[in-house]
Design goal:
alpha/beta, 3-stranded antiparallel beta sheet, 9 strands, binds inosinic acid, binds magnesium ion
Length: 174
């Protein structure tokens, strides 16, 4: 079975939207600073592009999580594989994710981060699949709402492949 990638959002569209979100974040945090928390690995491409377009002072940290159990994407209990290097206490934290799907991972993650006492905690995602939502998650900044299709590129993978594509594509099997 061979895979084919159909372009859903071109590089130009994605870049233009990231610029808009960067402008909005720069406005919203004006006079302050923002601490970006990237959820590895998927969020890394988006976070780098976004950070370059934010004009208030930015600091960065990374964390990596995985779901417990075999049913990887839907167990809802996440294990911290790599925790943040620095404390987020008193900081204006913006979590940067690649995609919100069921919402289970993020709802758990946000609750955990909130317990650590940030001054504020917001969520920014490049993609959102609202039709797939199982757990309610408040998203502050969304790049694109997309239909329920499996997408790759811009950090998103299929079996660890295609993260490096500079656009968002749908995996099709033929
Ligand atoms: P959920 O919101 O807890 O269901 O899980 C979100 C995670 O599932 C994302 O951070 C991605 O790692 C992965 N994921 C969900 N949908 C897709 C997709 O279409 N392509 C690639 N990864 C996806
Ligand atoms: Mg992710």
């Amino acid at each position: 079975m061979s895979e084919h990638i159909r372009v859903l959002l071109s590089e130009e569209e994605v870049d233009a939207r990231i610029q808009q979100i960067g402008d909005q974040i720069s406005k919203d945090y004006e006079g302050g600073q923002v601490h970006l928390v990237c959820v590895l690995k998927g969020g890394s491409f988006f976070m780098c592009e976004l950070a370059k377009r934010i004009t208030v002072p930015v600091s960065l940290d990374f964390m990596s999580v995985s779901s417990y159990g075999k049913d990887t994407k839907s167990s809802g209990v996440v294990k911290i594989v790599k925790d943040l290097d620095e404390s987020i206490k008193g900081k204006d934290v913006l979590v940067v994710e690649d995609i919100v799907d069921s919402g289970r991972t993020l709802s758990y993650l946000l609750e955990m981060l909130r317990d650590r006492g940030p001054k504020s905690l917001r969520l920014c995602t490049l993609l959102d699949k609202p039709d797939r939502r199982v757990v309610d998650v408040h998203v502050d900044y969304t790049g694109f709402a997309i239909p329920d299709e499996f997408v790759v590129g811009y950090g998103l993978d299929y079996d660890q492949k295609y993260r490096n594509l500079p656009f968002i594509g749908v995996v099709e099997f033929e």
